[in-house]
Structures are given as structure tokens and as C-alpha cells.
């Protein structure tokens, strides 16, 4: 199998509608040994219920707003696996009130929270993971959205955070490439998840996307998961610092 003997972390599984779940299932089917993280005990209960479907992966708590927890999590991975072949970062958050109305009304604290959790966390995790990943031809993958490039109604501060995330992908790819670590992003079309449900009008966004995208259908988590598999596998060994669109072609449209 493509990932036989490989170990990787998937962050962001909340339930079976999570994009991270789509990634985890694709990676598991390819033979990877998985580590799943959860932010708190409430979400941990959900992850523990899902874990048996992924071959009982290692489950670890990790609140990415806490640097000590990030380091502790990576230390546990080193103890259990010795090294790390991939990391899937499917984490984003902004307060609900910042995801409706006008961007100009964004509060300072909401801005800081969105950038910290949605963008800086990738930097923090990459720094902590590097000692486990270097020299192994490893890969880091994160999730973004076209709202980083265009003004999408209600996406607001999350679009700014995703723009910062994409810039971080490029800078991290440049920094980590000499260590044999690739860094890429997947820009998925709108999908109804626990996180996206906070965005005002998400159901209408999904409907319009399916009507207008060249493939004329909504994106699903399995499609995104399979591209994540490609990006962490040797098949993409020459790809880094890139954003791969999985949106049915929506991003090519001029209107």
C-alpha cells in the first residue's frame, strides 16, 4: 500500500462530516498509521467513538493555542512512533459574530483569535514537528478556501486568516525544503462541516457552488481526502509550496 509503514498526524476530526475525517479515511486505507488529536474532552469523546474505524489510532489531546500542549503531543508521537512522515492540519476558528455582516466591523480580539488558531498554529506545529520529520521525505498539508483570494460574503476575517495561512505555506516550504519536508495546501470548495456552519449563508454558498462550478456538483470530503493522500505520498515528491484546488473547477471562473 502507498503509505505502508508511514506514521502521520491528522488534526481537526470532529465528526464524520469533517474534512479531516475524509483525509483520515483515505490515509488509513492507504496503510498509514494515524495519530488523531482533539482540542478538549467534549471533542475527544467524538474522536474516541470514530477511532475503531481507523484501526484504533493513537489519540492525543492538543489545543494549538497552547504551545506546551503542542510540544507534549509531539513528544508522545516521538515516544510511540520514533518519527513522523506527515501532518494534516485541518484547523480553523473565528468567533461566530466575526463571520456575519461586514468585515470592517471585525473586533481586534476576534481578528487575533482567527489568525492565531487558523494560521499561526501551522507555524507552531511545523516548528515542533521538524525534529521528527527531517530527513524522512515528510509532508505537511493544510486546508484553505478561495475566500483567501476573493471577497466572499460573511467569510470576513477567516478569509484574511486563510490568506495568511497560504503565505505561511510558501515560507514554510522554503524553510523546510532543505530538511526534506514539503508543505502544501488544499483549497477545497464549500462543505457543510461543524466549522463551516458558523459562516453565515454556508448552505447557499454550497448550492451556488454546485450550480456554477464546471463539474456541476458539490465537493465532498472523500475527494479532498484523496488529494491529501496524494500530497503526503511519494507521488507528489516534487510538489511543495503550492495550493491545490479541489473545488470542481470553481476557481477558474471569471464571474
Q: Figure out the total of helices.
A: 7
- Distance, first to last CA: 42 Å
Mean pLDDT: 94
- List the helices and strands in order: EHEHEHEHEHEHHE
Q: Specify the biggest β-sheet.
A: 7 strands, parallel
Number of domains: 1
The beta-strand count equals 7
CATH superfamily: NAD(P)-binding Rossmann-like Domain
Account of the protein in words:
By secondary structure, this protein is an alpha/beta fold. It has a single domain (7-246), classed as NAD(P)-binding Rossmann-like Domain (Rossmann fold, 3-Layer(aba) Sandwich), CATH 3.40.50. It has 7 helices and 7 strands. Strands 3-2-1-4-5-6-7 form a 7-stranded parallel beta sheet, sandwiched between helices. Helix 1 packs across helix 7 and helix 3 (67-81) runs parallel beside helix 4. The longest helix is centred in the middle third of the chain and has 26 residues, at 108-133. The protein is globular and about 45 Å long. The model has no long low-confidence stretch (mean pLDDT 94).
Chart the SSEs and their pairings.
Layout: E1 7-11, H1 19-29, E2 33-38, H2 41-50, E3 58-61, H3 67-81, E4 86-89, H4 108-133, E5 138-144, H5 156-176, E6 181-188, H6 202-212, H7 221-232, E7 243-246
Parallel strand pairs: 1-2, 1-4, 2-3, 4-5, 5-6, 6-7
Helix pairs in contact: 1-7, 3-4, 4-5
What is the structure about, briefly put?
Helix content is 42%, strand content 15%. The protein has helices at 19-29, 41-50, 67-81, 108-133, 156-176, 202-212, 221-232; strands at 7-11, 33-38, 58-61, 86-89, 138-144, 181-188, 243-246. It has a seven-stranded parallel β-sheet with strand order 3-2-1-4-5-6-7, with helices on both faces.
Amino acid at each position: 500500500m502507498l503509505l505502508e509503514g508511514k506514521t502521520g498526524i491528522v488534526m481537526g476530526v470532529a465528526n464524520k462530516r469533517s474534512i479531516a475525517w475524509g483525509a483520515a479515511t483515505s490515509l488509513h486505507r492507504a496503510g498509514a498509521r494515524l495519530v488523531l488529536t482533539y482540542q478538549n474532552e467534549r471533542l475527544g469523546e467524538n474522536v474516541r467513538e470514530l477511532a475503531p474505524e481507523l484501526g484504533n489510532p493513537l489519540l492525543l489531546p492538543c489545543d494549538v493555542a497552547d504551545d506546551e500542549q503542542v510540544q507534549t503531543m509531539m513528544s508522545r508521537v516521538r515516544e510511540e512512533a520514533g518519527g513522523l512522515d506527515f501532518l494534516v492540519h485541518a484547523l480553523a476558528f473565528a468567533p461566530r459574530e466575526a463571520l456575519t455582516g461586514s468585515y470592517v466591523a471585525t473586533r481586534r480580539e476576534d481578528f487575533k483569535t482567527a489568525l492565531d488558531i487558523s494560521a499561526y498554529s501551522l507555524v507552531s506545529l511545523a516548528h515542533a514537528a521538524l525534529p521528527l520529520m527531517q530527513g524522512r521525505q515528510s509532508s505537511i498539508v493544510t486546508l484553505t478556501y478561495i475566500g483567501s483570494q476573493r471577497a466572499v460574503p460573511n467569510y470576513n476575517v477567516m478569509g484574511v486568516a486563510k490568506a495568511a495561512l497560504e503565505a505561511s505555506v510558501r515560507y514554510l516550504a522554503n524553510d523546510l525544503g532543505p530538511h526534506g519536508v514539503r508543505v502544501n495546501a488544499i483549497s477545497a470548495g464549500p462543505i457543510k462541516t461543524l466549522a463551516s456552519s458558523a459562516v453565515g449563508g454556508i448552505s447557499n454558498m454550497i448550492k451556488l457552488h454546485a450550480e456554477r462550478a464546471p463539474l456541476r456538483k458539490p465537493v465532498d470530503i472523500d475527494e479532498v481526502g484523496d488529494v491529501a493522500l496524494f500530497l503526503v505520498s511519494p507521488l507528489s515528491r516534487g510538489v511543495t509550496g503550492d495550493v491545490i484546488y479541489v473545488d470542481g473547477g470553481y476557481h477558474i471562473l471569471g464571474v
